Amino acid sequence: MSTVGDGRTEPNARAESFEPRRVSIFLLVAFGLAGATALAVSLTGGLTNSPPVALGLPLWLVLVSTFYMFSPSVANVVTRLVTGEGWADLQIRPAVRLNVGTYLLAWLVPGLFIAVGAALFFALFPAYFDPDATALRGVLPAGTSFELVLVAQVVQALVLGATVNTAFAFGEEFGWRGYLLQKLLPLGPRRAILLLGVVWGAWHWPLIALGYNYGFDYPGAPWTGFLAMVWMTTMVGVFLAWVALRADSVWPAALGHGMFNAFGSLGVVFATTGAPSLLGPTAVGVVTVVPWVFVAAALVFRSPVFEA
């Protein structure tokens, strides 16, 4: 792995051979800590009966936002320590000035395609479309402009997604795109991003089993939920890998991930009760993810970033 004078890895300089030991240790720590956290959540009331802790937040949310979401970052650090790898090529230099376009895409593309996915869901299942957004209007004070509230929510998502959400998303991305992707690249860029998408999805399975994202009331639960999550992480993961490799930094991926989470429930505003959670209209629904397939295909087959 070649480096420049200050110890940074040169752009696109990657390990020449696959390192199964480091990959195995990383996965053991990331999945082990996530699984242990999910078990703790399950034993303390799950997602529905979790006791309140600091600031009234439920215990499950605190555990998931910290130990679970940051388990890939912990795995990155532990693997480097255990194997004596050192701290070169951490992928944490933002390099914003050299990659303004990449950061703009990471900031704006997730919300756009989540909206397109929600529109596709409602086009295929119009019975679940509520153009009046009755649920949201019902909780607004009399005389409040619904349109103004909707615009405010979008602006809030753009701001919080790029700040708070990105900080938490870094907990995952420092591990996934910042470390594991680099270790899988010797298998070939296209194979690496698809394999990482499956791994990233499987890492969510303990939460899916607890009812996160899809609940319990869907056909084939939780197994179909497991597959739906892998479908989402594989498709969206291509975009996150692309911005990370393009900038040679984990930060655009953290930003894109944060924006995805910020806009993830946008479609719910216009949904009736009883919408099929496995299919949509949230960002992780099988149908809602379909537009990302075109993004992934265009990047995988057209972008030089993924050329071997």
Task: Tell me about this structure.
The protein is mainly α and 308 residues long. The protein contains 13 helices and no strands. The protein is globular.
Can you give keywords for this protein?
308 residues, globular
* Poorly predicted sequence stretches spanning 5 or more consecutive residues: 1-13
Distance between the termini: 16 Å
> Helix segment count?
13
Morphology call? globular
- Estimate percent helicity: 55-70%
Mean pLDDT, to the nearest integer, reads 92
Main beta sheet = none
What would you call the structural class?
mainly alpha
- Following the backbone from N to C, one meets helices and strands in this order, namely HHHHHHHHHHHHH
Total strand segments: 0
Radius of gyration: 20 Å
Strand content: under 5%
